[in-house]
């Protein structure tokens, strides 16, 4: 069955590059989630005035790739304790987050994060909330690491090929 989830973890190029390699990933696009401004540009998002976060819109086949596996993999490639940065990417637009379109999925994600938090000493600061909006990023951002294999990325996308 086709499902969708929105993931933010620093620069969206690496998140997309990683999740595109997973079996069960159907379609993805990068863009700006939860913006206070309609259809923001990259420049506006980088200015911090839109409130948007760089995010991945991931459509997946949940009979092949479960939400549980997506979340486990997501937390393995981001720093869930970093507030408004990931790697060298600094700013509110680089905060980490998980956004859903429905309350049932939101509840699943909240329970996952609560269970994940139990064994940790630091507090997870990854946002978990319903998606307010999503605007696709400019075309040059889409599949950026496929077009630019040596492009900057704080995520080791080859990790997608390993079992977790």
Automatic annotation (TrEMBL):
Catalyses which reaction(s): [thioredoxin]-disulfide + L-methionine + H2O = L-methionine (S)-S-oxide + [thioredoxin]-dithiol; L-methionyl-[protein] + [thioredoxin]-disulfide + H2O = L-methionyl-(S)-S-oxide-[protein] + [thioredoxin]-dithiol
Keywords on record: Oxidoreductase
EC category name: oxidoreductase
Keyword Isomerase: no
Superkingdom of this protein's organism: Bacteria
SUPFAM superfamilies to which the protein is assigned, alphabetical: Peptide methionine sulfoxide reductase
Active site positions, chain numbering: 11
E.C. no: 1.8.4.11
InterPro entries found in the cross-reference section: Met_Sox_Rdtase_MsrA_dom, Met_Sox_Rdtase_MsrA_sf, MsrA_MetSO_reductase
GO molecular function, one term: peptide-methionine (S)-S-oxide reductase activity
Residue ranges of domain Peptide methionine sulphoxide reductase MsrA in the record: 5-154
Family to which this protein belongs: Belongs to the MsrA Met sulfoxide reductase family.
Function: Has an important function as a repair enzyme for proteins that have been inactivated by oxidation. Catalyzes the reversible oxidation-reduction of methionine sulfoxide in proteins to methionine.
NCBIfam families xref list: msrA
Protein name: Peptide methionine sulfoxide reductase MsrA
